[in-house]
Amino acid sequence: MSRKIIFLFVIIYGLQNTLVAQVSVKGDVKDLRGEPLSGAHVSLQPSSHFSITDLQGIFEIPNVAAGNYVLTITYLGAKTYRDNVIVGKEELNLSFTLEDDLLNLQNIVVTGTFDPRTQLESSTAITTLESEALQETFPRGTADLLQAIPGTFTDPSAGEVFTKVYARGISASAEDDTGWYYVSLQEDGLPVSLVQHSYYSPEIFQRVDLTTERVEAIRGGSAAITALNGPGGIYNFISRGPQDQFGGEIQLQGGVQGEGNPLYRIDGNVGGPLGNNWFFNAGGHYRHDDGARNVDFTFSKGGQFRANVIKKTKSGYFKFYAKVLDDFTNRWTGVAATDWNDPKAAFGQDFNTTALLMPSFEANVPDGRRLDKGATNRFDPSQGLHAQDRAFGVDILQDLGNQWSLRFAIKYAHKNANWQTSISNAFVSLNDPLAYFISGAQFPIGQVVFNDARSGVELARLDNSGILAGESIEYLGQGTLSNDAIMGTASWLKQNSTDELVNQLTVRKKAENHDLTMGLASGFADTSLFTQGSFGYVTYEPNPRMLQVTLENPGEPVLTLSDTHGLSNYGGLFYDVSQADVRQMAAFLNDRWEIQDGLHLDMGLRYETIGHKGSKDRSAPFQKDGGYDGDPTTAYDNSILTSTGEQDTFDYTYGYLSYSAGLNYRLREEAAIFARFSSGNKAPELNYYFNNFSNVPINQKGEVQKIKQAEIGLKWNQKDFSFTTTAFWSQLKDIGIASFEFDSDDGSVFYTPVQFNNSRTLGLEWESAYSPISALTFRFNGTLQNPIATKWTVYDAGGTVATADDSTTDFSDNLLPFNPKLMFNLSAEYRKDRFNTFLKWQFMGEREGNVANAFQLPAYSIFNLGMGYAINKHLSADVLVTNLFNSEGLANFFGANSFGASANGATHEFIQDNPDASFVVVPVLPRGAILKLGYRF
Length: 937
Description:
Belongs to the TonB-dependent receptor family. It is a single chain. The chain has 937 residues and is mostly beta strands. It is built from 7 helices and 57 strands. The strands form 12 sheets. The chain has a 22-stranded antiparallel β-barrel. It has a 5-stranded mixed sheet with strand order 10-15-16-13-14. The chain has a 5-stranded antiparallel sheet with strand order 30-29-28-33-34, with no helix packed on it. Strand 8 (108-109) and strand 9 form a beta hairpin. The protein starts with a helix and ends with a strand.
């Protein structure tokens, strides 16, 4: 036999044995209760082989060459499993049982860290909400969902938008209209929105549905060096990843809220392989919601679609993703109350059902930007907020060899947030001259007639001739208005548009004892806004009606104080035309140094610059005899604000260095202690320019707020008991505060001069879970804290633009408002065979309603209940009930019940002088119940 033939025989024999040696590794994965775990990730290292378990918990990895491997199984909610396996010539068929990971401490997290690691190994406080927990939440928005996270204060009382979220007392600039001021709301590691200003915050463009796999949240800590201008924390919503078998889920939901208001919703998600290591995932939702309180229009409708396509390679992956959001919703405003010590609903209103919003109508208001062209803006308060987001991006991770890797993520988005709603709902007495002069008429004195704008029926006729002398009005005839008042409210037309591009490049090098990460992040946004406000004549009663108002003095022409819909003082209350270009650049460097086995030191630096360049139009009332339409008998169009042609420009850049260092020491396999100190910065948001300068030069930049935080914590993970506890200290300096005010003399709206203040919070947060038997789990998390306003002054404008009567009050060392000393969540969960149920108790402690500490929002409790049953392996049914006992807890406080009042105006002296006065509070949302039918395939 020749050498060539022998050589060929050896090659063929080797190939044959290689082919024979490629076998399948199969198995099933269950939990301690014997239930199959669907969606568990199974991988073999070193190799690119992986699989994901199906509905029966079964996986198969084909074509595995003979050799020694490390098999790893990860499942959110279960402890990570690792073991050595030997693959030979025979097919392997294995069975695994995963222990519960009650707090997900052994699961990999990617938020607030440059290198993925388990929660136990992280040197910061992290909480993970897995998909099971997300499905146990009543669908009321992002902020409502985040109430389950310790150390986090949320106020979702307004609904899905206009919410507040902050952590560890870092809260002062988190106002109702910019409630996410200090934190970064993210989707898959990139911010949902690059910019914030009044009525434009990130939760407007974020919705939770079946396309979300989990939420990772950190409070403070490493957010100072890992987030763009979000040092207070990161809340990262992570999308579903690839699955190697085609499958999905559909959910049909139907329920009621409040007094039987219906809610309908459909969610769906589907994913699977496309061949040649390509995978896809797509889904979204649509909903129709009449609202938790009583209005005469659909409160929310619309939905979103999200999709991603992933190509897995031997050295990493390429991911392409997109989102389309088109959604209408609104926000709940305050309700009147009396009794400062024990608030009770007033004027026939109800904390659970009353919504003091304008009813539905359609009007056309002259556009102050284009009066010369006869342009108008359609206004219909039933539209609320129309949020649109068109986003697409790319995420690339590649192993470069020699322990080098690179990740690059980039996203472009076009966003619109257009508001058509009402702002304020204060009591305005018919004995107050404001009720008539706010119409824009020069002298609206005499016989005033109020007609129902929808039916045309006369409701009341009165004589206000003596009102300027302090005399009361006199009704003429039998008709009266409810509570002898109208509502101090305005139409709120706000058009916002933004184009933004955000990206992050990270390069990582792993060495023997070091894990070094360096990178660049940038964001560019082009945003514009137009705001216009007109007064609305509305009845002051639980179901408000629009009023058509006329002045009908004998022998004189009829003077219309409102249009046929009830709008008055067209475009005379608010006018803002602004635009800005925002550029953010950051460079960062981080090293994770393994000092010794089990002891790691994290050290990171971040230098960030943020540039704001833009302009704000000056405005003045339109001047023309007879007003805009030239008709002297129509008083409602006499004071339209329009641009003067002048602009105030701004071009400021903020640069700062942030740093963070943390230690993690693994005491044993199941326990670790950690400590961290961070120094971060918060650059001003665009509301600084848009709100604080009215017809005056923008001649100074805003102040960068300085945030210092320290924390030390313990994480412990046992088979049936897990807990984490963290003691923290946070300090916030240079807080710019300005108040929204109303000048009763000329009817204008303005913001007071900015005051710079400081705060400090000491606290303890904890998260624990105990499972005495495999079917039953108790969970307890919460926060105990002492928030102090260490330096705090409030500017009092005296109710007028004039500065002669202004004063400043010092409230230093008072408790920080809206921060409870105690808040917690306690729950019991039972899962056995096909049945599951839970009961959750959310406790919110007493909070100060303002920095004067003159009014306290009482503590309240909310109980949520859920029950579910798996009918078969595909079909399931669940019932969720939120606010089971219909708690009337109060979440927010807006101050005295008068037009333009603010919370800080309710001082001890004011309350003492006005013990019977009414004030405005925002109650928590009432009971809601929903039935969910799910089908998995």
